[in-house]
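Explain this record to help learners:
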Amino acid sequence: MSASAPHTFPLSGSGLSGSGQKEAEIVWSIVTGLYAAHGDGDVGSVDERLDPGATIWHSEAETLLLGKRDLDRLRAERGAAEIGPEAVAYRAYDPVIEVSGHMALVRYWLRVDYVPAKNGTTPCSERVRNTAVLRRSATVWRIVHLHEEVWAAGSVPVADAGHQAADAG
């Protein structure tokens, strides 16, 4: 028995029809729902989208997170440290999605916006390149691997960023 051909769902339009398009849209909703839940502080909804054994190359961790236990440890460390600016919004965009049978591969960008600092400066948004691998068991898609790579670090105040750019030129 051969696997079905991969379905691609880029932002500009997938050209898919029927079940391939529907599966790509469902997969994308899992990814975007993860960030919506994270932004709302809804840990339970985040965890519903992750396989309990999911591996994560998290932008805040040096080592590979191996399952929910490691993710919970990172969450506890983050809460205790309270380092850096507070994120106010997450937006996943420009997806490229391939669905093949019970597996899906999603490549996308994530923009993280921050709350203005107490001194009135607004931190720059952070841009993160991501890859998510999802697996469907029964009728439920869950993320089994997530890889984050910070491409443009945020938190440098916008006013300072402009001065740095002018100084560099």
